[in-house]
Each structure stands twice: as structure tokens, then as C-alpha cells.
Amino acid sequence: MLENLGFFQEIKSAFYDELVNASHGQKTNLLYAKNPISEQSLAESGTPFQVIVVGGTNFISATVVRKNGRLEILKTTKDVTPILDSKETLVNLIIKHLEPETRVLALNFAFPMNVVTRGNILDGELINGTKEHGLSDLVGKTIGLEIEKEIFLKLNQTVSVAVCNDTVSLGLAGLDNLESHGHKNEVVAVGIVGTGYNFGFFDSSKSFINLESGNLSNFKASSTLSEVDKNSSNPTRNLFEKEVAGAYLWQHFNLLSAQNGLNKTVSDSVKLSDLALSDKSQPGNIARELFVKAAGMVAAQIAALADFMIESDPNQKLNLFIEGSVFWKGFEFEKNVKLALKELTDKEIEIREIQDSAILGTARLVG
Q: For residues 275 and 273, what is the distance between their CA atoms, to the nearest angstrom?
């Protein structure tokens, strides 16, 4: 970990500069999209509505209701997310799980998008697909509006569809968690460190800033990144994500294994983590080094975000909510992030996990 400290400090500096420049309206690799959160409700209190989470490994559908000011999950079903190669595939997946009585749908859509507001409905315009999900015929279109039209066309069912990405959803869940415990005006940031990768935070106006921080590119790339990038569905984009996210870590291992003449491959980052834990030979060493390096790179972005958000009041702390299997289940990932943070920043950072955050945060779109 410490032998790469200089590299991590370089990432921290580069990311901090991007944050400052983006906050001043300058063009950077960060999206820095402001998501205004409406206080108006799309469904009356006591009226159930549906939440769908799609884009990560797991597809989730839930029926949710707000009673006495609190969100309650009534029913949840899970499925495996198929490869989303087109709008038709996405729409058919949603229709398959859409309840006949649903009139309001909140969609957690784990893809980069520009913010679109339609009255009091938060929506998004797809920028590009990620990982293996191309969605080329949905790029540049307003996601919720397109889904509304397709549902009406196929089912003759009128449904209002609000959309946010997984980072915005986690931010809303974190804010709701703090406020439900009487904590207001806190410094709140969130991170997705799983199959995909991203960070975001609430600004002083309580709008949520989606960074698409996986798109950072001004850092020293690994020897295998160019090959991983070339084989991806979105070459030249999300380069930082391709170094640290679960969708790609195992690909780096397979390339390094071949370069070292080893007859060992894995098919996903869960198996890579298992290898790092159990194998004491060279393949295990490569796996462990990948996880340690990725943890330090993630810590560098967290440290920059902490310095950026609370530099004006050093007595504050950063409440950081994180979601994702790489962070919580990857080989010694959480431990190594926290070790690196001690070397990278003097700011106080409390890292937390929220149960059912993907559902509850997205449900906040409804009110």
C-alpha cells in the first residue's frame, strides 16, 4: 500500500483540481451534473408505487408506500440483469416486472445521464451505455419519457416514470437516513464501488451533484488498461472506473496472468476476490495486488472529495455512504481504503452502509 502512496497522492491532486474546476463551470472530465430534488409528491401518502433498480448485477423490483412520513417496502423481487443491448430489451424487462396497478414508477438506472426535469418529475438523458450494456438506441433520449411512451403503446397503461442513477439514489437514501435521526445540514457524499464506480455529493443548496468520477483520465494508467478499454463497450470513456470497478478488475487479472505465463483465469471479480483470499502462489499475489491498488485509488478520490467539501470548516466530518460489493466484500478492500485515507487526508470521514439503499433512495423521487 505505502509503496504506491505517491501514485495515490497524484490521483488525489488530479481529482481535487477537477472538482474545483468543475465547480467553477470549467469543462473537465467530470460530469458535475446538478440534480434538483423536488419536494412535490408524485403519489399520495398511503398510495403504493413501484421502484425498479436496473444496471448493476441484480435487477430489483419493489412495491413501496409512504405512511406517516416514512417509506415502507411492501414487496421485493429480484432477478439477474440481462445484457441491455437496446431500448427494446430494457422496456421488455421493465414491462415483465411492472405491476398492473402501478401508476408511478421510480427507476434507479445505473448509467451516466444528463439531468432533465419534466415538471416535478426528475428524468435523465442517457449519455452512453457502460460495461457490456450498449443501449445505443437510447443514447441522447429522455429515459423516463421513452419508457412511459412504450408502456402506454404496449399495455395501454399510463405510468409516470421518474429516473435517477444509482449514485443519486444512494445520496437520497443517505440524506433520508441522517434526517430521520435528527441530523440536518450535514456534509454528505456517496460512492458506488461495485460492478460500476461513481461518487457524488450534496452541495450547499441541497442539490445532488453527480460526478461520474469514473471518467477521471489524468492519471498514470496500468499496463493492462488499454487492452481492457479496447475490449469494452465504451472505449476511451470511464477510464478510472475500468481500473477499479468489479466489471473490469478480473479482466486485468486475466491479462496479467497471461503476461506472466500462468494458466489461470477467472470469470468475474467475486472469483478474483476468492482467489486473493485462498491462493498463496503467484496468481493469488496478482489478485491481492489488484485489490490493494484499486483500494488506494478509490481512497485517493475520497480524500480529494473530503478536502474539497469541508476545507472551509475543518471541524466538520464527511458522512460517506457507500454501496457496492467490491467495497464491502472485495478482498480486504474496506480495510485498505481506510488505511490509505489515514495517509491521504486529515479530514474526519465516517463510512456507512444503508440497508435497501437502492430502493429507499429511489423511492424519494416520488416524494
A: 5
